[in-house]
Write a structure and sequence with these properties.
The complex is a heterodimer of chains A (578) and B (261). Chain A is an alpha/beta fold and 578 residues long. Chain A is built from 22 helices and 21 strands. Classes of the chains: A alpha/beta (578), B mainly alpha (261).
C-alpha cells in the first residue's frame, strides 16, 4: 500500500534561519507516526507546513509534499482549505486558544460540517451530538451548548478532536494533544486517538513526551534542531537508541531513575562542582564549602549556610522542619483541603502528587502561610506558623523558600537577575551582595554574566535556575516547590531536578515537592502523599507506594500514566483501570 | 515620526526656557502703525491688531502654555496617585468609597468640571491650571488603581512576601516602581491634552487674559478677525497642535519601547 502522506526533503526557513531541514517520512493509512523533540526542535512547524499553515514569513520547500494525490505546495488556497476541512484533521496545541471563547462548542464543531457538506441545521446538530458522544464527552446535549470556559481541559480537548474528525478525515495531525492535561485525562485522550487510528485514520502525533508517543506510535522520528536525528520502529528506537541525543532524551525521563541518581550528563562548567575540589574560576566559594571559614572576607553563602547549620543543630536536635496537623481549607462550598496532616524531616523530600483540583497547591500555600487554614495548623521548625501573625512570622520567613511553575511571573519585571537574587539576601544591598549573588548564580549553574540581564530574556530552564538561586539565597531550611519542572522540556527538567538534588545534599534542605507528574515525584521524594479532592488517599515511603499502591485511586492514577515501551516498564502495572 | 516629535519637543523646550534666543523682541511691544500685517520677512507670522509681532508672542507664550500643561498634568497625576493608592492598598470599604466617588466625578464632562471650579474661584492662569488638573484626575486615578491592584496581586509580590519582606518594603521596592513606570507614559500622553484644555479655557477667557502672550488667549483675541486676518489665529493654533501632537507621539514611543523590552 502506498503512503497516504509522503514528505521528502521538507525545509522551512524564516528569513535566514532554517528551522526545519531535510525532513522526510511517510505515513500510511491506519498508521501512527510520532514526532518527538523539545521546544524549538521544529516539530510544530513541520506539522503546520504539512497543512500549508506555516505562515507568511515562512518559506517552505520540499522535494515532495504529497497527500494522497495532492501536491500540497502546488495546491491552490481553495484546495488547501477543502483538504484541511475534509481530509486532514488538525488538533492543535492548547485547546483553550483553539476554541472561540464566545461560541458554544457545538457551534464550533458544526462549522466544518456547514462549510464542507450540504446539510440541514437539524442534521448538523444530530451529527455534532453524535461526534461529542463519540469522543467521550458525557451529556453531549448539555455540553454542545456550553462555551469553552465552562468545560474542563479534558473536555475542551475532546471538543477540539471532535471538530477535527467531524468529516472523517483520513489523516489526523495532533500537536501536543495531551500536554497540560492530567494523566488520567491524558490516558482517555490517547485511547480516543488510538481508536480513531484503529478505525483506519492515519495519525501524526507530535509531542515532547516520549512516553506519550511510544504509547501510540508504531514509528518514531526524533527531531533535534530542525533535523530528524533518528527514526525507526518505536520499540527499537526506545530500547536501543542510536543517536546520542535520543539517548539523552530517554535518560532524562525521571521515571525509572531511583532517588539520588543523576538524570542528565555531568554538567559542564560553569555548573558548580558538588565536591569541595576548587574549580579554577571559583576558588573562594569552593573552599568555603568546607565549613568554618568565616574568616574569609568574601565568604560565600555556602559558608553562611554551614555556619548556620552548625549553630542550629544543637538548637533543634530532631525537630521536624514542618508539622502540618489536620489542615482544612474551603473556598465557598468547596472543600479544597480536607484534614491533611504530614511531617517533613530535615534533609528529606515529601512529594505531594495529585491531579489538578486535588488541593495540592492549596497545601503549598498553607505551608507558605500565604493562606490561613480554616482548621488545623502548621508548625515550622517547632514554632507556631499558621497561627502566628505576619509580624511574628517575619523572622522565620527567610527559613522558607518557594519556587513556582512559572518562574518568570514570580520576578519583578523591572529588575535584573542580579537585583532579584540580591533582594532575597537577608542583609539586602550590602557591599558583599554583589559577590554573593555571583556565587549563588554559579551555584545554580548559571554564568554570573546573566546578572545584568532581565529574566524575560532567559530560557525557561535558566529562569527556573534564577528562581532557585533566589530561594536558596537566605539560607533556608525548607523549599516549597510547586510544579517546578512542569513547563520545562524533559532534558532541562532533568538538569533542574539534578540541581535540586545536589543542593539538598550540600545544604541539607528539605523539600515539599508538589507535582502532577508521577515520574518526577517518584524520582525526587523520600515519602509521598497522594491527594484527591482535598484528601490524602494514600501515603508512605515512595518505593512502597509506587511498588504496591493500596488505594484504588492510586492504582488508577498509576495505570493511566504513560510509560516508555514494554521493555522499560517501570513499575508493576496494577490490574485496574484502562 | 518619533525623531520629528523629539525635534519639536526640543524646539518647544528651548522656546520655553530661553524665548529671547529665538525671538529677541518684546511680545507686548505695540506698534499701531504696523497692525494687521500679513506674514512677511519682517514679521514671519504677521502682526495683530496692535501691531505686536505674532511670532514673538507665540515663542514667548510657549513657556506659559507648556507650564500650564505640565503643571496641570502634575496636579492631575498627583491627586490620582493619592486616590489610586488609597483605593489600591486600602481596606475594601475605602476602595469601594473611593471608586464610587471617582465614578461620580466621571459623570461630569471634564471641561464642565473645570468650568465649575473656575466659577467658584475666579478666572486666571493658576485657577485654570488647577481646574484642568482636577478634571483629568479621575481618569488617571482609575488607571493607577487597577495597576496597583494588578501589581499587588502579582506572583512576584507574593514571592517578596515569602522572602519575608514587610508591607512598606513591598510597596516601596515593587509596587511603586512598577506603577511609576506606567505613570510616566501617562504623563507624556497627558501633557498634550492638558495644553489643549488650558488653551480652551484661555480661549473662553477663563485662563490667561489678553494681552498676555498665551496661545489660548491669542486665539481668543484673534477670533474677531478670523475672516480677514487668518494668521492671528492660525499660528497660535498651529503651536497648540504641534505641541500636543509631539508630546503624545513621544509618549506613545516610550510606551512602545516599554512593551518591547
Amino acid at each position: 500500500m502506498s503512503a497516504l502522506l509522503s514528505v521528502r526533503g521538507l525545509r522551512v526557513r524564516f528569513g535566514d534561519a532554517e528551522v526545519v531541514s531535510d525532513v522526510s517520512f511517510d505515513v500510511a493509512a491506519g498508521e501512527c507516526v510520532g514526532i518527538v523533540g523539545e521546544s524549538g526542535s521544529g516539530k510544530s512547524v513541520t506539522a503546520r507546513a504539512l497543512l500549508g499553515l506555516a505562515g507568511r514569513q515562512a518559506s517552505v520547500t520540499a522535494d515532495e509534499l504529497r497527500f494522497d494525490e495532492t501536491q500540497i505546495l502546488d495546491a491552490s488556497a481553495a484546495r488547501l482549505r477543502s483538504l484541511r476541512g475534509r481530509e486532514i484533521g488538525y488538533v492543535s496545541q492548547g485547546a483553550l486558544v483553539a476554541l472561540d471563547p464566545l461560541r458554544p462548542v457545538g457551534r464550533e464543531i458544526s462549522d466544518s460540517l456547514r462549510l464542507h457538506t450540504s446539510s440541514t441545521p437539524a442534521q448538523r446538530r444530530a451529527r455534532v451530538l453524535e461526534l461529542l458522544a463519540d469522543v467521550g464527552v458525557p451529556d453531549p446535549e448539555l455540553r454542545a451548548g456550553q462555551r469553552p470556559d465552562e468545560l474542563s481541559g479534558g473536555l475542551r480537548q475532546r471538543a477540539v478532536i471532535a471538530s477535527a474528525i467531524a468529516l472523517g478525515p483520513r489523516l489526523i495531525i495532533a500537536d501536543e494533544p495531551t500536554t497540560a492535561l492530567d494523566s488520567t485525562v491524558q490516558a482517555g485522550i490517547l485511547d480516543l486517538l488510538e481508536r480513531l487510528r484503529s478505525e483506519g485514520a492515519a495519525l501524526v502525533l507530535i509531542s515532547h513526551d516520549l512516553a506519550v508517543v511510544s504509547r501510540l506510535a508504531s514509528r518514531v522520528l526524533v527531531m533535534h534542531e530542525g533535523r530528524i536525528v533518528e527514526s525507526g520502529p518505536s520499540a527499537s528506537v526506545l530500547a536501543e537508541p542510536q543517536h546520542p541525543y535520543t539517548r539523552r532524551l530517554i535518560a532524562a525521563v525521571p521515571t525509572d531513575r531511583p532517588r539520588g541518581t543523576r538524570l542528565g550528563p555531568t554538567p559542564a562548567v560553569p555548573a558548580p562542582a558538588p565536591s569541595p575540589a576548587p574549580a579554577p574560576a571559583t576558588p573562594a566559594p569552593a573552599t568555603s564549602l568546607n565549613g568554618n571559614s568565616g574568616v574569609t572576607p568574601v565568604a560565600g553563602r555556602d559558608s553562611a549556610h554551614a555556619r548556620r547549620a552548625e549553630a542550629r543543630t544543637p538548637e533543634f536536635p530532631s525537630t521536624p522542619v514542618v508539622v502540618a496537623a489536620g489542615l482544612s481549607r474551603s473556598f465557598g462550598a468547596r472543600l479544597a483541603v480536607d484534614d491533611v496532616s504530614f511531617t517533613l524531616q530535615r534533609g528529606r523530600t515529601l512529594g505531594i502528587v495529585g491531579e489538578s483540583g486535588s488541593g495540592k497547591t492549596t497545601v503549598a500555600r498553607l505551608v507558605l502561610a500565604l493562606d490561613r487554614p480554616d482548621s488545623g495548623d502548621v508548625r515550622l521548625l517547632g514554632k507556631p506558623w499558621s497561627t502566628a501573625t505576619e509580624r511574628e512570622r517575619r523572622p522565620l520567613r527567610p527559613r522558607v523558600g518557594a519556587i513556582y511553575q512559572d518562574a518568570l511571573s514570580s520576578f519583578d519585571p523591572r529588575k535584573t537577575v542580579g537585583q532579584i537574587v540580591a533582594d532575597a539576601l537577608t542583609h539586602g544591598r550590602s557591599q558583599r551582595a554583589g559577590v554573593e549573588v555571583a556565587d549563588l548564580l554559579r551555584r545554580v549553574g548559571l554564568d554570573e554574566r546573566v546578572m545584568n540581564r532581565r529574566p524575560a530574556r532567559l530560557s525557561g530552564g535558566q529562569q527556573q535556575r534564577v528562581a532557585i538561586a533566589r530561594a536558596i539565597a537566605p539560607a533556608p531550611d525548607l523549599i516549597v516547590c510547586d510544579e517546578p519542572v512542569s513547563s520545562l522540556d524533559v532534558s532541562v527538567q532533568a538538569q533542574v531536578l539534578d540541581l535540586l538534588d545536589e543542593l539538598q545534599r550540600d545544604l541539607g534542605l528539605s523539600y515539599l515537592f508538589i507535582t502532577h507528574d508521577l515520574g518526577v515525584v517518584r524520582h525526587v521524594s523520600d515519602e509521598v502523599l497522594v491527594m484527591r479532592a482535598g484528601r490524602v488517599v494514600e501515603r508512605g515511603a515512595t518505593e512502597q507506594v509506587f511498588g504496591a499502591p493500596q488505594h484504588e485511586y492510586t492504582r488508577a492514577l498509576f495505570a493511566s500514566a504513560p510509560r516508555i515501551g514494554g521493555d522499560l516498564d517501570l513499575w508493576p502495572v496494577p490490574s485496574v483501570g484502562s | 515620526m518619533e525623531t520629528a516629535a523629539l525635534v519639536v519637543v526640543a524646539f518647544l523646550a528651548l522656546a520655553a526656557l530661553a524665548p529671547s534666543v529665538l525671538a529677541p523682541g518684546d511680545p507686548l511691544a505695540i506698534a499701531p502703525l504696523d497692525s494687521f500685517q500679513p506674514p512677511s520677512l519682517a514679521h514671519v507670522f504677521g502682526t495683530d491688531e496692535s501691531g505686536r509681532d505674532i511670532y514673538t508672542r507665540v515663542i514667548h507664550g510657549t513657556g506659559a502654555s507648556l507650564l500650564i500643561g505640565i503643571a496641570a498634568t502634575a496636579i492631575g497625576l498627583g491627586l490620582a496617585l493619592v486616590f489610586g493608592l488609597l483605593a489600591g492598598f486600602g481596606p475594601r470599604w475605602l476602595d469601594f468609597g473611593t471608586t464610587r466617588f471617582l465614578e461620580v466625578l466621571f459623570a461630569f464632562p471634564g471641561l464642565l468640571f473645570a468650568l465649575l471650579f473656575i466659577v467658584v474661584y475666579g478666572p486666571g492662569v493658576v485657577t485654570s491650571t488647577i481646574a484642568v488638573g482636577l478634571s483629568t484626575a479621575p481618569g488617571y486615578a482609575r488607571i493607577i488603581r487597577s495597576r496597583v491592584i494588578q501589581v499587588r496581586t502579582s506572583p512576584y509580590l507574593e514571592a517578596a512576601l515569602v522572602l519575608g519582606r514587610g508591607r512598606p518594603s513591598r510597596i516601596v521596592r515593587h509596587v511603586l516602581p512598577n506603577v511609576a513606570g506606567s505613570l510616566f507614559v501617562l504623563a507624556t500622553l497627558g501633557i498634550g491634552q492638558s495644553i489643549v484644555w488650558a488653551s480652551s479655557l484661555s480661549y473662553l477667557g477663563l485662563g490667561a487674559v489678553p494681552p498676555a502672550a498665551e496661545w489660548g488667549a491669542m486665539l481668543s483675541a484673534g477670533r474677531t478677525y478670523i475672516a480677514s486676518f487668518w494668521w492671528m489665529t492660525f499660528f497660535p493654533g498651529l503651536f497648540i497642535v504641534l505641541s500636543a501632537a509631539a508630546t503624545t507621539l513621544l509618549g506613545r514611543g516610550i510606551q512602545q519601547r516599554g512593551r518591547e523590552s
